[in-house]
Amino acid sequence: MQLLMRNTIIVTVLAWFGLAPTHRAHAESNEKSAATQRGGSGRTAEIQLLRSVYKELVEINTTDSVGDNTRAAKAVAARLRAAGYPAKDVQVLVPPGAPKKGNLVARLRGKGERKPLLLLGHLDVVEAKRDDWQRDPFKLTEENDTFYARGATDDKAMVSALISNMILYKKEGFVPNRDLILALTADEEIIPSEHNGLEWLLKTHRNLIDAEYALNEGGGGTIDTNGKYVAHGIMVGERVYQSYRLEVTNPGGHSARPSKDNAIYHLAEGLARLGKFDFPFKLPEVTRLYFQRLSELESGQLAADMKGVIQNPPDQEAVARMTARPRFVGMIRTTCVATMLDGGHAANALPQRAGAIVNCRVLPGEPVEEVTRTLVRVLADDKIHVSPIGKPVLSPAPPLNPEILRAANDTTTAMWPGVPLVPFMAVWTTDARFLNNAGIPTYGLSGMFNDENSGAHGLDEHIPVKSLYEGQQFLYRVAKALSTSSRLGMSP
Ligand SMILES: [Zn+2]
């Protein structure tokens, strides 16, 4: 039954990829009516609003060290109230004991015909040191048609688009067929965190954010080196995050009287074995679709390897080459990698302790306990004590929901003719895991295109100015399509 259903959905998805003329025609009319509706000067005002929200948010530092999420949440609340949202529908929720870890939840009331649609983003950003950056990371800089700042893409671009759209919907008197909920949360970037805003909201204010499904960060398009839009990704599922502490202890002693039984050597040899090991090859359904679609867009060896991996039985040489590519290995295997190391206490003493952190990313559906057992087996040394850090949050992959895929696909086609929408499983982790785990299927979708290295989490984070503007329009249309009563779900 489940298999049958899955096949039906996949056939449907592929039919869209094969292009369905009715949907396409409908999408074009959607584009026209949206443009007419808001007009040229209307668009200028929209962009002004978007830019001002974006600048304000980027310039409120929301790092863990010195930043303040509550300040950002309050700034958003003020804008929404000024746009006409009643106070009861705009809440800044601050967890007890963490005054700077505030979250915002706002609601645009609809007709109540369906369960709400949740629009999710995170307010916090990864640390950024001024000295390491070419430009001040907490000032919005516009250069070469590009915005630079910490959070320029992750996640203040999408967050600003969602806020602007909530304001636009209110101002134009849009009444959706269901409530639209905006949730902007703290501590997405910290794993594990005591103050993850979404996790806390689910535990303490579930009614405020309960929804049929959610749209979140994680999706987006890629721009190649020639500036061409390659594909638009919709994120459907992610791997499970689990770190481990490895530790070897030893009585130690004087370094002039060494023994072969050395804590550092035990640890190092175990890690070297882990470094050479590959977890079993697996092909999640969404990855199969992804490779199938992408192999038609790529060329040469990479395209051939994608085809080789999805054939039955898979071509083992293709699997080996895909495993060697950092961009793809996480789509076909669970991965565990050493990320931190410590040990010893004096240059002239035998180490009494040596430790490492191994960070694993587990494919959906693979039991984490099995990964723990494999890790112990591969380290192959009972002197190496392996303990999980925190509890994993499982993230069952959301279904390939035809309604969402259709709205995303039609809007993509209307805005960027010829650019395909491609579902993919993320190799990284987002707050979607909490929602998927809580039974609210969550999809990563942004309509924002960027180059392969956007600098997210790293240096000189950026996004093309045009991508921010387009993403806002894309999200405006998609959220509307998913909350209007038309059966096709596309009238703007
Ligand atoms: Zn993010």
Structure description:
By secondary structure, this protein is an alpha/beta fold. The chain has 15 helices and 19 strands. The chain has helices at residues 2-17, 21-58, 69-82, 156-172, 197-204, 206-209, 263-276, 285-297, 300-310, 316-323, 326-332, 368-379, 402-415, 432-437, 465-481, and strands at 90-93, 103-108, 117-122, 141-143, 146-148, 180-185, 213-216, 220-223, 229-238, 240-249, 253-254, 335-343, 349-350, 353-362, 385-389, 421-426, 442-444, 449-450, 462-464. Strands 1, 2, 3, 6, 7, 8, 9, 16, 17 and 18 form a 10-stranded mixed beta sheet that branches. Helix 9 packs across helix 10 (316-323). The protein is globular. The structure holds zinc ion.
Count of β-strands: 19
Helical residues, percent: 40-55%
- Global mean pLDDT: 91
- Major sheet: 10 strands, mixed
The small molecules bound here are: zinc ion
Shape: globular
Beta-strand residue percentage: 15-25%
The total count of helices amounts to: 15
Distance between the termini: 35 Å
Q: What are the low-pLDDT stretches, counting only 5+ consecutive residues below 50? A: 1-12, 16-37, 488-492
Backbone CA Rg: 24 Å
Return the structural class. Answer: alpha/beta
